[in-house]
DNA sequence: GACATTTTGTACTGAGTGTTCTAAAATGAG
DNA sequence: CTCATTTTAGAACACTCAGTACAAAATGTC
């Protein structure tokens, strides 16, 4: 057999992810990545063959943990509306907890636009996952009577997803928690049945 | 007197702005800026003393034209609600027109976060201007009965502004016009009076 | 212990970065 | 025309960038 790695690959990906998350792709140098992960250049290029490939790994990792925590938040309440509310409030709380760094996917979308195929694919995959998750819970809310039935669940999911992006941008811009909670509250009310 | 400039400074700023808008700050090299503006390196550094200073000029320029077109859209309808609708629909139309490049301010917010003081100040100024504009029209809508009175106009403005950011991110991510119109429509309905 | 294999540390590469320097060219005032 | 002033063109600058070459170090197997 061969010499074993001295580090945990997933842990390294997570460190790199945080570096990209804080400063963006272009502004994060390979040197920064070495320092963030604690690896030498050789190890970085040996395990993840390029900066861009490492970024893709970081996006994938982010997507996994993001979908997981989002799903947990959505499961933390009874009615459909309350579940959506819990997810939005959780997003705000998360932003406060990590100092308003926004969402890696949103930041990547803004930085790359549709100039990068691989990044675009990751963003599409993430969006589809989030929308599928949201649509299910919104449909449940329409069934239990807490969410308006006059609009397609998929459309409302799109709206909620856009609201999350808006909140992420607000946060990254430095908005305070109260403003974000206000926006989240109005968005939740928009889902209520029209009496 | 001295030798006159061979180019229009504002026009150069606009070209630089478009370069930054398309590709972001870091990914736009000084070489790119020379090609975009048609100027030589000397002229660029002579008139705008650094890449960063030129970016600040670009942000300022964007802010001016952005606020202007936004104000025009808001004035293009009768009732308060219709004015907000016109602004959101206009945003969607603008995105289609320019191929989904999003908003320079949103992109800058995502790229810089709160790491850059000058950029942060420009973003704060822009946000305040947009919110002030929106708040006025929303207040008018509350007066003419087309917008809900149970919430503060400033809060609703914050919501609409966040929705615009969300739409910009959607667009930059490659979303289609129908999805964006759907989101805009739901946001407008959220402003309606609760019967 | 010798070997095949893989990781690691260090030095290096060539290209590209933002910025500056120098000197020629272009202007209007005196 | 002369001169001070400013813009231009283009080379040059120091530095950083992402990525590589290479040899030493570390493993399990034989």
Describe the structure.
Two copies of one chain form a homodimer. Chain A has helices spanning 9-23, 30-37, 41-47, 51-74, 80-97, 104-112, 117-143, 153-173, 177-191. In chain A, α6 crosses α7 (117-143). The model of chain A has no long low-confidence stretch (mean pLDDT 97). With 195 residues, chain A is mostly helical. Chain A binds a DNA duplex (30 and 30 nucleotides) through residues 1-6, 29-31, 39-43, 45-47, 49-51.
The tally of helices of chain A reads 9
Q: Output the structural class of chain A.
A: mainly alpha
Number of strands of chain A: 0
What is the percent of helical residues of chain A? over 70%
Q: What do the pLDDT scores of chain A average to?
A: 97
Most extensive chain-chain interface: A-B, 47 and 46 residues
Q: What separation lies between the terminal Cα atoms of chain A?
A: 70 Å
